[in-house]
Design a protein that fits this description.
CATH superfamily of the largest domain: Methylesterase CheB, C-terminal domain
Helix content: 40-55%
Largest sheet: 7 strands, parallel
Radius of gyration: 25 Å
Shape: elongated
Distance between the termini: 48 Å
Length: 332
């Protein structure tokens, strides 16, 4: 009977430092395959595989699409690509962004849960917001194990805390404890019956793999919501993960946890305010020019009209500038 030989790890802000501490705690003869997603800038080269190979005994790499996986290796999502897990393989895809990120943690966790069920150990490290929470629900729903870094030692505790709010975690440990814990669990055989795969999990895994037929299917899971996608403006469907967790997906495939949706909406609001602020300044400039032009022609009524419109535009621009200033002050 196999052990928990599939380890999936997700992290964001502060997680590289976590991996630096965790890597040397994993033995060179670890009979498990490790998959890692860290939120990375999309257009920069990642040196994380080289660093992890230096920090610990396990060799690390950015895999190629369709590559066969081996125990005792670490596979890391490359920038601007999701890392998806299949039976004995990995897939590297530029699928729709999830939780404002590509790579995103949830697609890795869901596909690992689909492919390996009870054999999966899901680990959440330091990071903002709640990417990985929905994926950890999927791992637990298939009988896998949920582990989070102790939030009290995380540089950014949001992700571990939100994961614990979303699902009943099996272990909340420090990084120093995590290495020995993973090693022990890898050698423990899985027990109990294999839990069934939900249709929702099949759909979510297919959507992350850019399966357009799944995304556009009439029998897609979830219910229409009154919200729109911050990325493409399409309608969002609300999908229940379980009693405590839900997420959204649009017909283009973009997916959002509740907190990442709020972050996306906040970014769109700021963009809209800046655009409106710019438009009002330009309107004020043109109204002033028309005021001078009309006055020079002796058209007093037109000149007065343009003067009033210029003042209104300036007044409204000042209001928007104050709104933008208050947003900056209120930002965490």
């Amino acid at each position: 009977m196999p052990g928990h030989d599939i380890i999936v790890i997700g992290g964001s802000a502060g997680s590289v430092d976590c991996l630096k501490k965790l890597a040397p705690l994993l033995p060179a003869d670890l009979p498990a395959t490790v998959f890692i997603v860290v939120h990375l800038p999309p257009y920069s080269k990642s040196l994380l595989p080289e660093f992890l190979s230096q920090w610990g005994p396990l060799p690390a790499q950015h895999p190629q699409d369709g590559e066969r996986t081996k125990p005792g290796r670490i596979y890391i999502a490359p920038p601007d690509h999701h890392l998806l897990v299949g039976q004995g393989t990995v897939h590297i895809v530029q699928g729709p962004r999830e939780n404002n990120s590509r790579p995103s943690i949830d697609p890795l966790f869901r596909t690992a849960a689909l492919a390996y069920g009870q054999r999966v150990l899901g680990v959440i490290l330091s990071g903002y917001l709640d990417d990985g929470s929905s994926g950890l629900v999927a791992i637990k729903s298939r009988g896998g194990v949920g582990i989070v870094q102790d939030p009290s030692e995380a540089i950014q505790p949001d992700m571990p805390i939100n994961a614990m709010r979303a699902v009943d975690i099996d272990y909340c440990v420090s990084l120093q404890e995590m290495g020995p814990l993973l090693t022990r669990l890898v050698h423990e055989p899985v027990s109990g019956e294999e839990l069934p795969v939900s249709q929702d999990l099949h759909f979510e895994s297919a959507a992350a793999n850019w399966d357009i037929d799944a995304v556009l299917a009439k029998d897609r899971p979830g219910e229409p919501s009154p919200l729109s996608c911050p990325d493409c403006g399409g309608d969002l469907w609300e999908i229940k993960d379980d009693g405590k967790q839900f997420h959204f997906r649009c017909r283009t495939g973009h997916a959002y946890s509740p907190l990442s949706l709020l972050a996306g909406q906040a970014g769109n609001i700021e963009d809209s305010l800046n655009e409106a602020f710019r438009a009002l300044l330009e309107k004020s400039h043109m109204e002033k020019r028309m005021n001078k032009l009309s006055a020079g022609r002796g058209a007093k009524d037109q000149a007065a009209y343009h003067e009033v419109q210029a003042k209104k535009a300036e007044h409204n621009a000042l209001i928007l500038r104050e709104m933008l200033r208050l947003r900056e002050v209120a930002a965490p």
